[in-house]
UniProtKB/TrEMBL annotation, chain A:
This is Iron-sulfur cluster assembly enzyme ISCU. Pfam families: NifU_N. Residues 25-147 form the NIF system FeS cluster assembly NifU N-terminal domain. The keyword Metal-binding applies. Belongs to the NifU family. It comes from the Eukaryota. GO terms for molecular function: ferrous iron binding; iron-sulfur cluster binding; iron-sulfur cluster chaperone activity; molecular adaptor activity; protein homodimerization activity; zinc ion binding. PANTHER family: IRON-SULFUR CLUSTER ASSEMBLY ENZYME NIFU HOMOLOG. Transmembrane segments: none annotated. The lineage of its organism: Eukaryota, Metazoa, Chordata, Craniata, Vertebrata. It comes from Anser brachyrhynchus. GO terms for biological process: [2Fe-2S] cluster assembly; [4Fe-4S] cluster assembly; intracellular iron ion homeostasis; negative regulation of iron ion import across plasma membrane; positive regulation of mitochondrial electron transport, NADH to ubiquinone.
From TrEMBL, chain B:
Catalyzes the decomposition of L-selenocysteine to L-alanine and elemental selenium. The lineage of its organism: Eukaryota, Metazoa, Chordata, Craniata, Vertebrata. Residues 20-406 form the Aminotransferase class V domain. Belongs to the class-V pyridoxal-phosphate-dependent aminotransferase family. This is Selenocysteine lyase. The gene is SCLY.
Length: 159, 424
């Protein structure tokens, strides 16, 4: 469950397959694929780290996104690991870039449509951006839960 | 990365699926575990279940196991389950029983039995009733659904009840719109009414629900629903093409009159040498549902909601009408019935121009109807020209968001194509 690094990219560049379609990945996607930002892990047991794990291997897409939030509610660090296609990797990589420096509430406003637009994702890859949005929300929900565990419990019981 | 290298990247991508099946309300494939159970039974338990020897007993055990699975799935007891050839037979049995029960009840000349049902039922309820009415053997009221909720409202159903009413049959979830009917509330009211009726010497009203579309997509519990009969249809929940009828205490608490007479199988409720492989498969499918229905429901709802969001994003709110969204009623987790508004965009035409999407405009058994819109949508108050353009997409347990992206893209190109054809 890791973004393929330079080795993987080199493998792909070694000319596998002859006549492919003329359409290729957009350069923004390729950039994140070749130069992924923030790959890795944070300590999921730390109180100020929120971890979101979304997707399913059966669907071919799994994303883990983690955020570290400071005492002012601002995201200071983010990491991701993704099992999926180039568009999925790029979407989650971009997500970690965008959440850094934002407050929790600001980060919740990030929409999949923004990610898709930035990466110029083709229609058949829009679900990757959706999953990245889900990952951000899941990470932030986990963080919030860790700050107020009792409160969340009673809210859930009230539902 | 330079353009010449892009093809290399492109070739690593998995190819887009050649077809995406989104017609799971019409039928479902066998789950792998079901196919395995079915195949094993066919090869290893082919004895006659009524035979005393081991070959027969093996089959008999499989059938007993399947019966328990089915009972567990709906929250009933094994003795409440009768295997049938499918939903059509089960529905016909209920109507047949209600009529026999009415005729044989004590009390002189009660008149013609009356049955209340909804205007959006499956043909296997509607047509037997229409036939009985034609032959003057029964009277029937088809309660129209509310155009606001898409439901057969409890008050409307009760208002249709007469002294001669012997059966109320309302489907649990509609196959075209996905609307879930208020069966629990309805049976509570009927039970209360029955107590008064018995005191007045009026016939008991039996309560039936056709749960074909609901099983595997939401909670189905006969205690909660409070029904006397519930129809189970295998090929809607990744099982084989047979079914079963749940009856609350058949022959004791609740009447059940056979339509077929023969060798005594199924306690003479439904004789005929048992179809062991299919029954084994049905039991396995029921097991899967009991274990996983919540996960199935959550997944299908997620994918369906994503589909609706993508449709809205691609066509715009103005151009789209969701025929399955009603206020005040719940709907199936997997069904999306919608129309792309505009001339020349009849559902069948759009589907014919799709390259990967496999879906329908309504019930599969009505697909030869030409361009006439679904009577079910019309009776839900959907305008004629909107109903003509209706498409019914129903997702399955394995449908992914990636599939949705492919399908939406396909619909966009189909509509664009039709737009060009219109213009030229």
């Amino acid at each position: 469950m890791a973004a393929l690094g330079r080795a993987g990219a080199a493998l792909l560049r070694s000319g596998r397959g002859a006549a492919g379609p003329a359409l290729g990945y957009h350069k923004n996607v390729v950039d994140h694929y070749e130069n992924p930002r923030n790959v890795g892990s944070l300590d999921r047991n730390a109180k100020n780290v929120g971890t979101g794990l979304v997707g399913a291997p059966a669907c071919g897409d799994v994303m883990k996104l983690q955020v570290e939030v400071d005492e002012n509610g601002r995201i200071v660090e983010a990491r991701f690991k993704t099992f999926g296609c180039g568009s999925a990797i790029a979407s989650s990589s971009l997500a970690t870039e965008w959440v850094k420096g934002k407050t929790v509430d600001e980060a919740l406003k990030i929409k999949n449509t923004d990610i898709a637009k930035e990466l110029c994702l083709p229609p058949v890859k829009l679900h990757c951006s959706m999953l990245a949005e889900d990952a951000i929300k899941a990470a932030l929900a986990d963080y919030k839960l860790k700050q107020h565990p009792k409160k969340e419990e009673s809210e859930q019981k009230a539902n | 990365i330079s353009p010449e290298r892009s093809p290399a990247l492109g070739s690593v991508q998995s190819p887009a699926p050649s077809s995406v099946y989104l017609d799971y309300n019409a039928t479902t494939p066998l789950a792998p575990e079901v196919a395995q159970a079915l195949g094993e039974a066919a090869c290893q338990a082919w004895g006659n279940p009524s035979s005393a020897h081991p070959a027969g007993r093996k089959a008999k055990e499989l059938i007993a196991g399947a019966r328990e699975s089915l009972a567990r799935m709906v929250g009933g007891r094994p003795e409440d389950v009768v295997f049938t050839s499918g939903g059509t037979e089960a529905n016909n049995m209920v109507i047949h029983t209600a009529l026999r029960h009415f005729r044989e009840s004590k009390g002189q000349d009660r008149g013609t039995p009356h049955i209340v049902t909804s205007s959006v039922e499956h043909d296997s309820i509607r047509l037997p009733l229409e036939q009985l009415v034609k032959e003057s053997l029964a009277e029937a009221t088809f309660v129209p659904v509310s155009p606001r909720s898409g439901q057969a409202e409890v008050d409307d159903v009760l208002a249709a009840v007469r002294p001669t009413t012997c059966l109320v049959s309302i489907m649990l979830a509609n196959n075209e719109t996905g609307v879930i009917m208020p069966v629990s509330k309805l049976s509570q009211r009927i039970h209360a009414l029955n107590q008064k009726r018995v005191a007045e010497g009026l016939p008991r009203i039996l309560v039936h629900t056709d749960a074909a579309q609901m099983i595997g997509k939401g909670r189905v519990d006969v205690q909660e629903l409070g029904v006397d009969y519930l129809t189970i249809v295998g090929h809607k929940f990744y099982g084989p093409r047979i079914g079963a009828l749940y009856v609350h205490g058949p022959g004791t608490t609740t009447p059940l009159h056979p339509m077929l007479f023969g060798g005594g199988q199924e306690r003479s409720f439904r004789p005929g040498t048992e179809n062991t492989p299919m029954i084994a498969g049905l039991g396995k499918a029921a097991e899967l549902v009991s274990r996983n229905w919540e996960a199935y429901e959550a997944h299908m709802r997620d994918v369906r909601d994503y589909l609706e969001a993508r449709l809205e994003a691609s066509f715009g709110k103005q151009r789209l009408h969701f025929n399955s969204k009603f206020t005040g009623s719940k709907r199936l987790c997997n069904t999306c019935n919608f129309s792309i508004l505009g001339p020349g965009l009849q559902g069948r035409r759009v589907l014919a121009h799709c390259k990967t999407l496999l879906a329908s405009v309504g019930a599969a058994c009505h697909s030869e109807k030409g361009d006439r819109p679904s009577s079910i949508l019309l009776s839900c108050g959907i305008p004629y020209d909107v109903a003509q353009n209706a498409l019914r997409l129903s997702v399955g347990r394995d449908t992914t968001r990636a599939d949705v992206d492919v399908v939406v893209q396909d619909l966009v190109q189909a509509v664009a194509q039709l737009g060009e054809d219109q213009a030229s």
